[in-house]
Amino acid sequence: MKFLLLFLMTYSLYGAGFWTLSGLDKTNVTYVQNKIAFLESETVETIKQRVEKTLKKNSIKSNQQDAPSVLISLEEKEGDEIYFFYIKFEIGEEVKTFRDDGTQTYAITYQATDFVESGPDEIDEIVLESVDYLLAKFEEQLEEDKE
Question: I want to staple 88 with a disulfide (CB 3.0 to 4.6 A). Which of 52, 73, 116, 142 is the partner?
Fold first, then answer.
């Protein structure tokens, strides 16, 4: 029940279009931060490939200098017989604040998250499904921002 309440609160905070992807036409690196002990290395490579494919499909160049970075974060949460995973898709970039001194800083300018559970035999499959879900949300946001 706590997880459902947390999900609903998070969804209501971020579900209203808090982020913008307007003008995103290039990215620098795609980094996968894997903190899931039992995830296959091939799955991490597949995640990178799916991100690159999604960027290309949406006319976003990758591996460009002085561009936002893409991060996929995979974290394992404590569980007894069921595994819980927190998956994040983020874009971070150098930004300039509206403060009087115009401070430059690194900020997360887009974020989508998912919290999933899995049995021990389906970890890789569940993680890939979650990443696909987050990439679909990313594409939806891109479409919204084009309108």
Answer: 73
**Which sign, positive or negative, has the C-alpha torsion 124, 130, 134, 140?**
positive
Q: Which two tokens stand for residue 130?
A: 């979650």
Q: What is the pLDDT of residue 17?
A: 57
Q: Which amino acid is at 104?
A: Q
Partner residues linked to 125 by β-bridges: none
| CA dist., res. 131 & res. 112, Å (int) | 10
Provide the β-strand partners of residue 87. 74, 114
Task: Record the tokens describing residue 76, joined without a space.
Answer: 């394992």
Sheet containing 30-35: order of strands: 30-35, 69-77, 83-96, 104-118
Computed over every residue of the chain, the mean pLDDT equals 88
Report d(CA 127, CA 88) in Å as an integer: 11
- pLDDT tens digits for 94-120? 988 888 898 999 999 999 999 999 988
